[in-house]
Specification:
- The chain has a 3-stranded antiparallel sheet.
- The chain has 258 residues and is mostly helical.
- It starts with 12 loop residues before the first strand and ends with a helix.
- The protein has helices at 26-29, 47-75, 78-106, 110-122, 130-142, 146-158, 166-178, 182-194, 202-214, 221-229, 233-257; strands at 13-15, 30-35, 41-45.
- Among the domains are: 1-45; 170-253, no CATH class.
């Protein structure tokens, strides 16, 4: 830092000796200088002043940190509390959603029963519980929820979290398929091809696979065509007539429910 004489403005100044009588608290923050041009002696803030000031600021910051840490120990860390509050804000709607869904499900609302089954299966708003998930899925199927009927029928077909039962599986898949569920139609058609839970029947296999293919299940096209080749012309006509009737039936049902 350049020192300048306050009297003549010269920068030809040098540090002056501190006399014994001048050793007072002021010399800690100020230092004497003498101008070599006009011999003026003057005092300026020393570099020590900045060091002392920096040290004082550091002490204040350290004290503040210690006090904040102590407050955190006694009252709980504020940031952690904020984080937990944020988590609570997310969890609360899930709990409320679960409670509301449970209430509706207990009143035999099929959609709520199906949603509750999903919540138990995925652990949304409640601990995962496969048995509860299966129970509410079956109840939703019994009360007419088409997707629940398909999923429960598929669980029975694959023996997933329930005893494998082809006959019951075919019944639930038939209910879902008759309501327009293309995935259920596909599985049911394959069961008629293989004779799983139902007698082998190429006519019914063709009906359900034809419906599944029309519903966008590409995997149904190849087995549908294979079943078609096993039918007589009269059987093809009868099967296509039945497929058309089922399509019209659930179309009317869908329209009337809106």
């Amino acid at each position: 830092m350049i020192r300048r004489c306050p009297r003549c403005g010269s920068i030809n100044v040098r540090r002056s000796t501190i006399h014994t009588s001048e050793r007072t608290p002021q010399h800690i923050l100020r230092s004497p200088y003498r101008c070599h041009e006009c011999r003026e002696r003057f005092w300026v803030f020393s570099r020590n002043a900045y060091y002392y000031l920096g040290g004082a600021i550091a002490m204040v910051l350290i004290t503040a940190v210690i006090a904040w840490s102590a407050r955190s120990v006694v009252w709980g860390e504020p940031h952690a509390l904020e984080d937990r509050r944020g988590e609570s804000d997310e969890v609360a709607p899930k709990i409320a959603s679960f409670a509301g869904t449970m209430k509706l499900a207990q009143d035999k609302d099929p959609l709520a029963e199906y949603k509750l089954a999903q919540m138990y299966a995925l652990g949304h708003g409640v601990d995962r519980d496969k048995q509860s998930a299966r129970k509410w899925l079956e109840r939703a199927a019994q009360h007419g929820h088409h997707e629940a009927q398909y999923e429960f029928g598929l669980a029975l077909l694959n023996g997933r979290d329930v005893v494998q039962d082809f006959e019951r599986s075919a019944e639930w898949l038939r209910r879902a398929g008759a309501s327009g569920n293309a995935k259920a139609q596909f599985e049911l058609g394959r069961m008629y091809v293989a004779g799983m839970g139902v007698p082998v029947d190429n006519v019914k296999a063709y009906i359900w696979l034809n419906l599944a293919a029309a519903g966008g299940i590409e995997r149904a096209v190849s087995p549908r065509d294979a079943a078609f080749r096993a039918l007589s012309p009269a059987q093809v006509v009868a099967a296509q007539t039945e497929a058309r009737r089922l399509t019209e039936e659930w179309s009317v049902s869908t329209t009337s429910s809106k």
